[in-house]
Every structure is written in structure tokens, then in C-alpha cells.
Amino acid sequence: MTVTVRFAPSPTGKLHVGNVRAALWNWLFTRSRGGEFILRIDDTDKERSTKENEDRIRSDLEWLGLCWDKTFSQSSRFSEYDRVSDAFRDRQLLYPCYETAEELDRKRRLQRTRGLPPVYDRAALDLTDAQRGAFEAEGRRPHWRFKLSHETVKWIDLIRGETVVDTASVSDPVLIREDGMYLYTLPSCIDDIDYSISHVIRGEDHVTNAGVQIEIMKAVIEVRRAGALPRFAHHSLLIGADGQGLSKRLGSLSIEQMRADGIEPSAITSLLAKLGTAEPVLPQPNIMELAKSFDFEKVGRAPARFDESELVALNAKILHELPYAAIANRLSAIGVSEELWNAVKGNLSRIADASLWKAVIEGEIDPVIEDRALSEKAASLVPMGPLTSDSWDSFVNEVKAQTGAKGRALFHPLRLALTGMEKGPEMAAIFPLIGGEKARVRLSGKRA
RNA sequence: GCCCCCAUCGUCUAGUGGACUAGGACGCGGCCCUUUCAAGGCCAAAACUCGGGUUCGAAUCCCGGUGGGGGCACCA
User: Please, are residues A204 and A252 in contact by the beta-carbon 8 Å criterion?
Assistant: First the structure.
């Protein structure tokens, strides 16, 4: 079976951990099966969609490595949507309604106080031509609802197993607004059929929608006389580390923000690919490796916790294993040489922190003198001439022999004097980079 | 309010009536190593949401409580 999936963000906001997880799973699934990944921009809402958001979404996806094989915007396909909705009207699948938003709201509140679910009562179906004419004469324009079958829709969800939606418990969905604008539902169904989407992979907030959409898709297939229903996979949503829903904090969880915070794309994909599955979360710099092990069988049904501190920790691990060549351009941009990178990477949690160590090693610092006698003695023992990777050991041995200090009492004052920091990279690696001249000055307590 | 889904170590989970003394990974703690921190190696601690029922036997099946998530838009 040919696999074709789509990720369909709406350019009304930014990409965040929640929707990126859906994008990633679509991508991993289709890559693991040699299929296609389509990026569809759901921009039917002209007022809220912006070009900036769309550009941001594309650049975030590219940054994450989620390349697409095909992309299009729904705003380019209105004529197709018109064609299908005309056919729906002919088949009485689409009916005009004249209630205002306030009237609908009042109806819902009334149902709720009676303990009933707020489902549309289909009053518009009983309207006579004369009544409709009267509304039109009043200046009202209709919005259009799709007439659901009121039967039970059933499908085998790849994650949830057999799933059932009773369409009698759902309102007939509004497909076209009073102003003639399409809501996302119909365009989405038409596109999924026209582009032969084989699998719809998304969050479980769409489970009820799937029931409705299956009915609409069936009608689209009839109109088009072609196409097939996709299979569905609805995954649970992420919750915060506090066990509460994520929606309120989404701003701080945007990909844009993470990128600004120095999180590597592979840290995000490594975590999001495995979180909520039976497989361990491990640093995986290669996203294709993630695709190889992707399997719906291993996905749990319960909401999974997304903890930012876990992402930060994973980011550090990825950095520790990152060879210079993989990020050479980014490092040279901040003036970090391969030598420097290899000396300090084991202590970084963000790449940008390399410049911090660059400043310590190459710039000037005020040394911290913890043991004046020891550091002054040490200053006189720094080997003359260029330092090598062996210099540190012989230097420390000499200091030990002449002062009697050992262990922490030996190391700690030297580190503080030479770097001004409590902890940091392996001294043997950074000692030659600091250089003998600077080391002598710092050990004697002067800025250098 | 109504409907749907879910519930195992701190976290993600394995587990489909006896093979469970409940397994793994991450994290946490301890030890070793490195003449400091980190990294690495080793070792430990740590869980079946509660109450009923079915059964010779329940983490596993059923009912109920509690808790969490989702849905019920002229948003997506």
C-alpha cells in the first residue's frame, strides 16, 4: 500500500510541541514506509491566517528536518471546494440555516440547563420556502450545514483500536459560513480524498471530527467517483510536567522559542518521537534512525507528560556527542575552533555556551585566588614554551610535589585561578589553550 | 451539564487470568574510576488509584468511586 500523509497546520499561530509531535509522527511513519509527506497550509480563514505564520511554520519544519515532498495551500483550491459543495446541495446533503450566532448560543445554553448535550436541533430543515424567503428579505444570509446520517461510524484506529462515533450525538457541521467562507472541515475532506491521503495521523482532539469527516469523505468520493477513505491514527495529547493540560502554556513551548533557547532540533525530535511510546528516549542526532523504529504498536493511549527539563538534559547529551564537522559553520560563526570545541563540549548544555568558555580561555578574566601560597608557587611552575596535552599532568605533579597539596585541595584552587569558575571542562584540555603566559599571570592573581 | 478515552516505580512504559518475587529505559541515590566538577563503569531504592465483584487464582475480566485528558464553535 502506498503511504501518503499530510501535516495540515493553520497559519493562525506558531508551531509548538503539540502540533510538531503530530507533524513528526506523520513524517516518521511515511519515511519508514517509503511514502510521501505533504505539507498542506489550512488557510481558509483569511482573517486570521498570515503570511508571517506560514513562513515561520515552514522554516521551523525545515529546521527540524521535516522536509516535505509536496506542499499547497487550501486558498488555491476554492474552485474545487465550490464544485463539491454545489454537488452536495444537489444531493440535499448541504442545507441552509438562518440562525444567528446569538440564537444558536441561546439554544445551546437552554439544552445544557436541561442536562442535554448542546446539539443542533435541525430546525432549519423544517423551514418552508416562504420562511427562507422571509429571512433573505430581512437581509440574512444562510450558513450551510452538512446533514449527518445519524448512524454510528466505526473505524479501526491504528492507535486506539476499534473506535466508534455516534453521529446522532453530534451537531450537523457548518461547512460554509454566513459570509461564504469555508470552514476547514470540507476543504480538509476534499483534499484528503483528492490527494489520496492514506493515513491521517493527528491528536485525539480530532476523534469526534473523524466520525463526521468519514461521512463527508464518503460523500466526496461519491461526487468525485474516485478515491478511498484514509486510515486514521489518533494519538493522545501531551500534558505538562504538572500533569495538567498544555494548552495554556503553548506560547513558551513554541519551536521558535526553543530554537532561541539553544535547543537542537535533534533533541526535540529525539524526545517527541519516543515520548508516550514503550521505547526509551535516547539522544538520536539522525532523524532517519528515528523513522526506522517508528511503530504505532508501541504507542500508548494515555496522555504523556512533556517536561522541558527533560528536553534540556537531552539537548546536553546530544551536544556531548556532536562532532565539530556537524556544526562547523555555526561554530566558526561564533569564532569557536575545532580545538576549543572538543575541549569544552563535554560541559555544555547549549552550543552558544561555547562562547562563554571561549571568553574564559581566550579573553581576559579576573582570577579567583583561593590559596595564595599554592597559586603563587604554581605560577612559577608553569612550563616554559608552548603547552601540550601532556603539560597539565606534569604541571600538576610538580605543584603537588612542591606544596604537598592533593585531591580537591590541589585542583580546586588551580581551576579557580585559571578559569575563575567552580567547574568546567577537563583542565588538561583547556590548559594548553589558555597558554603558559596567561596562566602565570592568572595564577599570580592578576587579570589576564 | 452531557458524551468519549485513560489510570503500573519520580517520568515514559512492558504486561492480553497462573511463567510477576511486576521487567526495561530515563531520572534519583550510593560506590568505583579520573590526583576537582562533569563524563564513564558498577550497585541499589522505587509502582499495579480506591472500593466491590467474577474466579481455585486478578496488574490483567466486570461494576462503581476518585483522578487526569479530550470533545460538545459560523476555530483548527
Answer: no
DSSP assignment letter at A194:
H
**CA A57 – CA A389 distance, rounded (Å):** 46
Would you give the distance in Å from CA A397 to the centre of its chain? 50
Q: How far is the CA of A275 from the C1' of B20 (A)?
A: 26
Nucleotide nearest to A103 (CA to C1'): B74
SS3 label, residue A268: helix
- Which are the contacts of A354, defined by CB distance < 8 A and separation ≥ 6? A331, A334, A336, A340, A341, A344, A345, A348
DSSP, res A420? S
Q: Are A304 and A236 in contact (CB under 8 A)?
A: yes
Which nucleotide has the least CA–C1' distance to A411? B36
Nearest-angstrom CA–CA distance, A24 and A11: 18
Q: A216 pLDDT exceeds 80?
A: yes
Confidence tier at A330 by pLDDT (50, 70, 90):
confident
Nucleotide nearest to A209 (CA to C1'): B71
The pTM of the full predicted model, rounded to 2 decimals, is 0.92
Q: Are strands A199-203 and A152-157 parallel, antiparallel or unpaired?
A: unpaired
The set of strand B positions with any atom below 7 Å of a protein CB reads 1-8, 11-15, 23-27, 35-39, 68-76
φ/ψ region of A310 (left if φ > 0, alpha if ψ in -120 to 50, else beta) reads alpha
| Rounded Cα distance, A95 and A174, in Å | 9
Q: Are A229 and A217 in contact (CB under 8 A)?
A: yes
ipTM: 0.91
* Å between CA of A279 and C1' of B20: 21
**Residue A234, φ and ψ in degrees, nearest 5:** -110, 115
What's the grid cell of residue A433?
589553550
| Residue A131: per-residue pLDDT | 96
Which cell numbers in the block locate residue A54?
506560514
